[in-house]
Write a structure and sequence with these properties.
- The complex is a heterodimer.
- Chain A has 13 helices and ten strands.
- Chain A has a ten-stranded mixed beta sheet, with helices on both faces.
- Chain A starts with a helix and ends in a 5-residue tail after the last helix.
- The N terminus of chain A is likely disordered.
- Chain B is mainly α.
- Chain B has a domain of 185 residues: MetI-like (MetI-like fold, Orthogonal Bundle).
- Chain B contains twelve helices and no strands.
- Classes of the chains: A alpha/beta, B mainly alpha.
Chain lengths: 296, 308
């Protein structure tokens, strides 16, 4: 497609505008250059969100909308507060007594902290996949995927069987585990375990799936599998992904939030825009420096 | 020894030669050191094991001849001047131990698990202080627990010495051991598993039951078994409060004799022949503790199969 229309699209192509600001075109070429024409519907909105521990601010000034059925990535160097911010979105900081989340985070216009949604119900709507694969080691593959449903009172075998097949298929794991569903989850490889964790999270049919550097402990092939998966998953679930890896953000995400540690060592949101814009024509000088690889 | 090696070398080759020369000169000293160290640790091992093996040797040698089916199943008979070798059996103590210790386990295990969960779940200062208190209790002389039960249970029951009082004394003794060890087992559960459970919309209690306890179960069993072995061998706290009996009566509200209190009582016997009976009881106790330990290992290995 590109070869026939190269000249006419040259002026607007991300590759070309990137070249003018000095960004490595190999990264830019990964950006999905065809912007979706569908209007962005915000499903979760963050406004002036800040998280602090023991009064010490870890991340602040975060305002952006998470678009429905889009992949939103959060990038930035270590210490910029990406993971801290992500864990505020399903109230996982509630576990830490000293943690305080301020500002507002709304899910379908209801504040997740003050709107009266019970935390456990919120977490069925906003699922999570963690940095290292963490299947329940005492459970079989089947029981791992079923666990979320069972926690929420669904016990009927026919329902569970169906949901488990559906989730494992969505996580591209069904074919390789279909014959050994009763086997301990720990027997799977690292990449398979992470896909199992994705299936486990998907089984409770969340509206949003939070992913905290889901490929950072995986080999390149498993990483590729997960990245391929994200593209198909966003049809059914909105994804927010934290990643260390800029190329990954460029490859998989539609929108991108860039965070950076300020002088007082608190992370803050520098820029939020479509991934295409962040990687080709960022507004803030610091974003440009980061994606050009000057630091981080 | 103002050798070339001590002067600053000038070239890379000189530096390499100097390091290699020094290393080969040091090699013999290094070897000697490690041999000495190995010798010292072996000696330490030997010193530690001599008393252990000699105890086991003596217990087996002196005790094994007494162990017969009759000895285990008949009540004791006091020797007399005319029947110096008449001692009967120890069925009363076996029954007493099973009853008193069994009841103590029945009380201490659930309490300890609850305490362990409470310690694990709370982070406040009050709980921190409670944990310290439990740890202090582990180090207390065990007779204190006997005195405590004597004062608050036995005296209130009109000085009646009962098996129940013995169970209570053992419970008070074992709960600190068990709960602190079980909490350690809970702490060994990776936090990511708890988070994974919560992130699926589970309540804390569900995460505790289905994930944390299940994961910690093998280690908790080990902790319980170790504390139980300690409890079954305790004498002092039990001795004060349970009295003694010659008949196996299976009644917690009457006096009982346990293996350890029987040992204490007969060692004061007038008759030599009866006194040597303690070896047989000791042998029995060692075997029981050994079997408990072995059983817990087998159970733990089975639980661990398939994961981790």
């Amino acid at each position: 497609m590109e070869s026939t229309t190269e000249n006419s699209t040259m002026e607007n192509s991300p590759r070309q505008s990137a070249a003018t600001v000095g960004i490595d075109p190999s990264i830019v070429s990964m950006v999905d250059a065809i912007p979706s024409n569908a209007p962005v519907v915000p499903v979760m909105r963050l406004k002036d969100v800040a998280v602090s521990f023991n009064g010490k601010v870890a991340v602040r000034d975060v305002t952006f909308d998470v678009g429905k059925n889009r992949v939103t990535s959060m990038i930035g160097p270590s210490g910029s507060g990406k993971t801290t911010l992500l864990r505020a979105l399903n109230r996982l900081h509630d576990l830490t007594k000293s943690a305080v989340v301020t500002g507002s985070i709304t899910l379908d216009d209801v504040d997740i902290y003050k709107g009266g949604i019970p935390t456990t119900l919120l977490r069925t709507r906003v699922g999570m996949v963690f940095q290292r694969p963490n299947p329940f080691p005492t459970m079989s593959i089947y029981d791992n995927v079923a666990s979320g449903l069972r926690f929420n009172g669904i016990k009927k075998k026919a329902f569970l069987d169906d949901a488990i097949e559906h989730s494992l298929r969505a996580a591209a794991l069904w074919d390789s585990v279909e014959s050994r569903l009763k086997v301990a989850a720990a027997t799977l490889s690292g990449g398979e375990q992470q896909r199992l964790c994705i299936a486990r999270a998907l089984a409770v049919e969340p509206e949003i799936l939070l992913m905290d550097e889901p490929t950072s402990s995986l080999d390149p092939v498993s990483t590729q599998h997960i990245e391929d998966l994200l593209t198909s998953l966003k049809e059914i679930v909105t994804i927010v992904i934290v990643t260390h890896n800029m190329q990954q953000a460029a490859r998989v995400s539609d929108d991108c939030a860039f965070l950076l540690m300020g002088e007082d060592r608190a992370g803050e949101l520098i820029e939020f825009a479509t991934t295409e814009k962040i990687f080709t024509n960022p507004t803030d000088k610091r974003t440009l420096d980061y994606i050009q690889g000057r630091f981080g | 020894m103002t050798s070339a090696a001590l002067e600053a070398p000038r070239t890379d080759d000189e530096r390499r030669a100097a390091v290699q020369e020094a290393a080969s000169r040091f090699y013999r000293r290094k070897t000697l050191y490690s041999k000495l160290f190995l010798g010292a640790t072996s000696l330490g091992l030997l010193i530690a094991f001599i008393p252990l093996f000699s105890i086991i040797y003596n217990v087996v040698r002196n005790g094994i001849s007494y162990i017969t089916w009759k000895f285990l199943t008949t009540p004791p008979q006091s020797p007399s001047i005319f029947h110096k070798h008449q001692i009967g059996g120890i069925s009363n103590a076996i029954e007493g131990t099973a009853l008193v210790f069994g009841m103590a386990l029945l009380m201490s295990v659930p309490i300890s698990i609850m305490v362990a969960i409470a310690l694990y779940e709370s982070h406040g200062r009050v709980m921190g202080a409670l944990r310290t208190l439990l740890e202090v209790m582990i180090g207390m002389p065990s007779i204190l627990f006997g005195i405590f039960i004597y004062t608050y249970v036995v005296e209130r029951m009109h000085f009646q010495l009962t098996g129940l009082a013995g169970s209570l004394a053992l419970t008070v003794l074992m709960v600190p051991l068990m709960s602190v060890a079980c909490e350690q087992a809970l702490r060994g559960v990776p936090a990511v598993l708890t988070e994974a459970g919560l992130a699926l919309g589970a309540k804390k209690a569900q995460v505790m039951r289905k994930i944390v306890l299940r994961y910690a179960l093998p280690r908790m069993l080990t902790a319980i078994m170790l504390s139980a072995s300690r409890g079954i061998g305790e004498t002092a706290p039990v001795l004060l409060v349970i009295g003694s009996t010659y008949v196996a009566n299976w009644n917690l509200m009457t006096s009982q004799t346990t293996l350890t209190t029987l040992m204490y009582n007969i060692i004061q016997s007038f008759y030599n022949y009866q006194r040597s009976e303690v070896w047989a009881i000791a042998l029995l106790l060692i075997v029981v503790v050994f079997v408990l330990n072995l059983a817990s290992r087998i159970i733990v290995a089975r639980l661990n199969r398939g994961h981790r």
